[in-house]
Write a structure and sequence with these properties.
Blueprint (H helix, E strand, L loop, with lengths): L4 H15 L10 H13 L4 H10 L5 H9 L11 H17 L5 E7 L5 H11 L2 H4 L3 E8 L2 H9 L1 E2 L1 H5 L4 H7 E4 L2 E4 L1 H5 L1 E5 L12 E6 L8 H14 E9 L12 E3 L6 E4 L3 H16 L1
Protein name: Protein-glutamate O-methyltransferase CheR
Organism: Sphingomonas anseongensis
Keywords: Methyltransferase, S-adenosyl-L-methionine, Transferase
């Protein structure tokens, strides 16, 4: 199935218009693979035929299915492991001290895909019951894709998916085998919640989140959309909260709303007021020396 330049541009434009995500030239190889199942199910023989149907509006809802198929939903349990170790060793112990009076913690996984990151966070708390007994821990996962959010809510994964990141003991402890795969136990499912949300929109619960994870999402956005996303993430966070990005993402040269946490490499703090001005001055000085 050949993908013409015009078809690629139209599909890339549709994805960006609906989600803010770019389908750059070096990622357009994914189009054929991503849409092959949809075309087969719809009985559409070529991408050009698909484009014609989309442009003419013959099949309402098809554009949503196309966007869903083009999204990159790669994720797995305890992805890259070290970020979760950082949360366990640094962020959560510090939050336990800071929030001792209220005994409430709120965490947001933005761009959570099928939910493995959210359930991984829930396991961190569930595996330390003595520390968190009596606490209210609100863990929210969100994604722009309704399809993956529905999957996340079900908490149902294949054998291959549970094997990615989970050891045998965690699998047996937190998942139950069923005819369709492995499903998160009820207590784990009840400890998290999910909703459809685009990070370019105003955040859920502005100013309330102690930790925001937005990993491997921003790298798909254009520069102006990325700037807006950082603004949205900053407005979602408590003043002393943390932001965690993906391994290939950074705030350096991207935003003045966040700065690196000097005590925890890999976490970022929200900057406000004078701190924003100071960072801008420092960035200008660094640029002048370069």
């Amino acid at each position: 199935m050949q993908v013409s330049d015009s078809s690629s541009r139209i599909l890339a434009g549709l994805l960006e218009a609906r989600t803010g995500q770019q389908l750059t030239m070096n990622r357009r190889w994914r189009i054929e693979t991503a849409l092959s199942v949809l075309l087969r199910e719809r009985g559409i023989s070529t991408l050009d035929e698909l484009i014609t149907i989309l442009v003419m509006g013959k099949e309402p809802g098809l554009s949503n299915q196309v966007v869903e198929a083009l999204l990159n939903n790669e994720t797995y349990f305890f992805r890259d492991r070290s970020p979760f170790d950082l949360l366990s060793r640094h962020a959560l112990p510090e939050l336990a001290k800071k929030r001792h009076s209220t005994r409430k913690i709120r965490i947001w996984s933005a761009g959570c895909s099928t939910g493995q990151e959210v359930y991984s966070i829930a396991m961190l708390f569930a595996e330390d019951p003595a520390q968190w007994r009596g606490w209210t821990v609100d863990i929210l996962g969100s994604d722009v894709s309704e399809t993956v959010v529905d999957r996340a809510r079900r908490g149902l994964y294949t054998q291959f998916e549970v094997q990615r990141g989970l050891g045998i003991n965690q699998t047996i402890r937190w998942f139950e085998e069923c005819p369709d795969g492995w499903r998160a136990v009820e207590d784990l499912r009840k400890s998290v919640r999910f909703q459809v949300h685009n990070i370019l929109e105003p955040p859920p619960h502005p100013g309330d989140f102690d930790i925001v994870l937005c990993r491997n999402v921003l790298l798909y956005l254009t520069g102006d959309k990325r700037t807006l996303a950082f603004e949205r993430l900053a407005s979602a966070m408590a003043p002393d909260g943390w932001l965690m990005l993906g391994a290939g993402e950074t705030v350096i040269g991207q935003t003045n709303r966040f700065g690196a946490d000097v005590n925890a490499r890999g976490l970022y703090r929200r900057l406000d007021g004078d701190a924003v001005v100071e960072k801008r001055v420092a960035d200008r000085r660094a640029a002048a020396k370069a």
